[in-house]
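Weekend entry, working from home. Most of the wet-lab plans are on hold until the incubator is repaired, so I used the time to fold the two sequences that have been sitting in the queue since the last round of cloning. Logging both here for the record. First:
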Amino acid sequence: MMKYVMMQQEEEEEDNSRRRRRTGPVVTLAHSYDQGNHNNKEFGEAASSSTPNEVSFRLSCDDDALYARFDVKGEKNIKGCVKEDGGEVWTDSCVELFVGDKVVQPEQANEGGSDVEDEGHRRDRKRSGYVHFELSRSGALLCGEASPASSRLSHGGTKSLSTEECESVKRRTGGDDVGSDGDWFGELEVPWTVLRKRLRPATLGKEEGALNDLRFNVYCLKDIPQGAFYMSAYRIPGPYEGPFFHQPEGFVALVAL
């Protein structure tokens, strides 16, 4: 009898967790870039034979964490050589989640920076800091942050999160094997405690609509000499030198989440 009661309680807790979770739309990565080309191009115009057929993601959240699911379809020569967290995961088959503030200080705004409508989502051109999570097909993870002052610098302008914080981000990958052509997926579970230390909204994960105070961009890439590709969910503001993802001006607020 006791075992039955415990199982019933666990099922109720799981159901409550599912009810609490808020889920956003499935978004397809619609933009692709040529390395060294200084102009943004629509998906398809810059796609090479190495570009996957389709990449999509979905975000969801509950009181405990922000969740991300990435699906990569039709990638050639899936690569997953990096085995340890903090490594050069962008040289593998890699998906990346960038999370930034929506609210920024006036002195940190770009000239003429203001909220504008773009691709059916709210886009804020003002500068802010951000946190990024880069996941290899191997399961290795790179976690970093940038302050508003350094947010337009190169990848070297970001600071790695602590080992403990990176380990607290749960991750899972699966699908077709490394070295083959095919499909794979990645999942991240980012505790709000990691984001609360760096992003301004104080009620992250505690109120309906709290994620409207955050902005996102999602990337998929394989940065190697032969067979490279670079994709983003939302357009990266130019001018830029190559596929420069570290630009919070390109982040978008997912108001439907």
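Second, folded right after the first finished:
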Amino acid sequence: MENEPIRKHSTRDRLIEFYRRLRELPQRDLARAAFQQICETLDRVEDEWSGLPKLIPIPPLGSPDGRMYCPVDDHILSRADGSLLAMTRGHRIEIAANGAERIINKATQVVELNDDKPSSRSDAAVGSTVGNRPDWTSHSAD
């Protein structure tokens, strides 16, 4: 099984799998821990589902290789209240100080993951433009 070729899945299928796996994990109680969990989960999905090796350093934003990557340091804003804002080529990742996560598609403005309940991921909304906004409500959208 180790030598079996990896079946390449579409980006959309990989995102669905990524969100599914995130919802199965316990929510972290700090933004940095939540961000690390997001990155580790994304790397696992991409390793298993993209059929593409992870490049180090990752390709520049204007030269995608077909694999999704966690945001690089210069695209992450740590706020004084403990929350984080991170940007990828296609998504805006908002993580409240309490670890609640929200991932927004930049092109459509659709909230693809809305995990604003500190104690549970079971009610995360995928593909919804409505939902509660945790601690970041006072910050304007970019």
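Plan for Monday: verify the second prediction. Residues 11-131 form one domain.
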